[in-house]
Amino acid sequence: MTMQLRVLTGTHAGARLDLAPGRYTLGSDPQTDIRIDDWPGCSLSIEVDQDGQIRYSSDTLPETSFVAFQPVRFGPLVLCVGDAGADWPDDVALLERLLSPAPPPAPRTSRRNIVRTAVGAVLALAAAALLPSLQPAFLSDAAARQHPETAVNQAKGLLKQLGFREAHVAQVGTRVLIEGLVPSSADAARLRAQVRRYHPGVAVNVAVVDEVVATLRDTLADPALSVRYEGNGVFSVSGSSDYAERASRRIADVRSDLGPEVRALHVEISQQDPSIKTPDNYDAALLADDLHYVETPDGTKHMTSLPQQAAQ
What we know:
This is HrpD5. This protein is of the alpha+beta class. 33% of the residues lie in helices and 31% in strands. It has three domains: 3-142, Tumour Suppressor Smad4 (Sandwich), CATH 2.60.200.20; 147-225 and 239-260, Histidine-containing Protein, Chain: A (2-Layer Sandwich); 276-311, no CATH class. The chain is elongated. The termini are far apart.
């Protein structure tokens, strides 16, 4: 079972992190496993068991078990854990659980009515005192818009984690975008899934290397030509073709459709010389000095003299 930790309030309100079994440290120190910039006090130690049980402790807190989908307050911050694959309530519903604990059983005597009234008054006062510190959670979307630099840093961390070196993060006004190139369609889908799950305020607009290569090959429709990705947004088309002029024209037509992530397209296409072209089907071939010999399936023998440069 994979458990998930969610931050419901504070600077990182809305952040989510899957927790594999093991021990983690959480705090504001850069050396902690899980860093929360506005974490109050000393670091928290979190231990996740194989069966999904999670316990926490610190220098000032005894070891205590988290209860799934029951938020826990640490000063102005509220954390919650649960099964990553489960249907989670939204953040507001989770915070309501913290503010509105289950009511006690119905009283049977007037004395219990008095006690219930007193407890209700205390809970109301506690909720009133807690509400100001929980406001960031109810306004988590607004907070994310007010702090785009936080989203930028989180998106950069995600790209580093996934190993997408040719993708980058850009900030346009209050919008945060992931742009650039990723190797395959599967990589693009994995990136979008991670962003949708953990950073829903970030937009993804990446080009896929394999798709660009496939587009060029389909456009050329010439197996004699080679299409390659050279790196850093540079693609190349090379080879010798019977239809070199047509190929160059098709590349010019498709170039503007490839998008800005394709920084350069190097084209080296030469016209195939008919005198040295090998038949499409042949049983044997021999190249010796400047003599080119080919025998086709019908028994016809083709012998041509190559130009000195071609023979070399």
